[in-house]
Design a protein that fits this description.
Length: about 210
């Protein structure tokens, strides 16, 4: 029995727009972010997708994106589970800083290492590897069983929590996954085989 897993990065947030490190800071969507979330819902509706359950993080930018999608597909009241296991990577001391200011403070090379290495964490924060260490067990225990029962599951989360998931689903290395860019509000639709391997992957861009 083949189930469906839909991953969506939240729409543009206020701090994405300002080029700030956001992490666990709880900021809302911009008007563009709202439009992106609604557009994601339209793309999924056009595919005739209906969800059995939804998962999102403890942060409102992902929660609001999730709700917009469910509203558009006509499932406003769907059971939605919120858990900080799906939160964005914690940027620690970088949180709230403008990325250009961080480069001035620590140097371009060091900030690039923190942003784009797999296992080096910024001061007080998490690496992508650390993020995966909480995302992947949560997925395995909570989310994947629904998909393997043939259900259709929505996960609305963040760039790095979704990267950690995609790394495992697609069998990518740490070096490969840090180069993956995830567009805001772009649904990624996975069809999984009964053994949890990926039968098909489709990115609903444009």
């Amino acid at each position: 029995m083949s189930g469906t897993l839909v991953l969506v990065r939240h729409g543009q947030s206020e701090w994405n727009l300002k080029n700030l490190f956001t992490g666990w800071r709880d900021v809302g969507l911009t008007d563009q972010g709202t439009a992106e979330a609604l557009a994601a819902g339209e793309k999924l509706k056009a595919r005739g997708l209906k969800f059995d359950i939804a998962y999102t993080s403890a942060l409102k930018r992902a929660q609001v994106t999730c709700q917009h999608i469910l509203d558009v597909v006509g499932q406003s009241g769907l059971k939605t589970i919120r858990d900080q296991a799906l939160n964005e990577r914690d940027y620690g001391d970088l949180s709230g800083l403008n990325k250009d200011d961080a480069r001035k403070k620590w140097g371009e090379e060091q900030v690039h290492i923190w942003r784009r290495s797999y296992d080096i964490a910024p001061p007080g924060g998490e690496s992508l590897k650390d993020t995966g260490a909480r995302v992947w067990p949560y997925y395995l225990h909570e989310v994947q069983p629904h998909v393997l029962r043939g259900e259709t599951v929505l996960v609305a989360a963040h760039g790095n929590s979704l990267r950690a998931l995609i790394m495992a689903l697609d069998g990518k290395s740490g070096e490969e996954i840090v180069k993956l860019e995830l567009g805001t509000g772009v649904p990624i639709v996975y069809r999984l085989n009964a053994d949890s391997s990926v039968a098909k992957k489709e990115v609903l861009e444009g």
